[in-house]
Design a protein that fits this description.
The protein is mainly alpha-helical and 132 residues long. The chain folds into two domains: 2-63, 434 Repressor (Amino-terminal Domain), CATH 1.10.260.40; 71-129, no CATH class. It has helices at residues 2-15, 19-25, 30-37, 45-55, 59-63, 71-76, 78-88, 93-101, 105-115, and strands spanning 116-120, 126-129. The chain has a two-stranded antiparallel sheet with strand order 1-2. Helix 2 crosses helix 3 and helix 7 packs antiparallel against helix 8 (93-101). It is elongated and about 50 Å long.
């Protein structure tokens, strides 16, 4: 799973951790963890859950199913995100608001991921679109 290995490495480097730090935190040997980062091994459910907990990301994100690291923040702020999208993309204003409010959280995330490549919650909410 190349996506999983890339995301594990990206998350570790962005957090400033060493491989040995992550290995200890999730109760793996250093060599065992390195095999995940190199894409030589796929985690079982328990190990995947440990990675998700350690990095505070969803399994969807780690597995490449979802594009957002913090899915819960996206769901919690979906009304504000919809308002921002409609303000930045006037053509989506009426239809977008009506459409987005009718979706389940799961469907909202799936539809949003087709247009929005990243949402940064560090300093307010900043949305990055694929077309930028």
């Amino acid at each position: 799973m190349q996506i999983l290995s890339n995301r594990l490495k990206e998350l570790r480097i962005n957090a400033g951790y060493l491989q040995v730090d992550v290995a200890k935190a999730v109760n793996l040997s250093l060599h065992g963890y390195q095999r995940y980062e190199r894409g030589e091994r796929n985690p079982d459910t328990e190990t995947l859950n440990k990675f998700c907990t350690y990095y505070n990301v969803s399994s969807d994100y780690l597995l490449g199913i979802g594009v957002y690291r913090d899915t819960q923040s996206v769901i919690k702020n979906r009304d504000l995100i919809t308002d921002i999208i409609c303000a930045e993309m006037p053509e989506a204003k009426f239809n977008g608001v009506v459409f987005f409010t009718m979706l389940s959280d799961f469907a909202f995330i799936r539809i949003l991921s087709a247009y929005v490549s990243d949402i940064d919650f560090t300093d307010g909410i900043k949305i990055k679109y694929y077309y930028e």
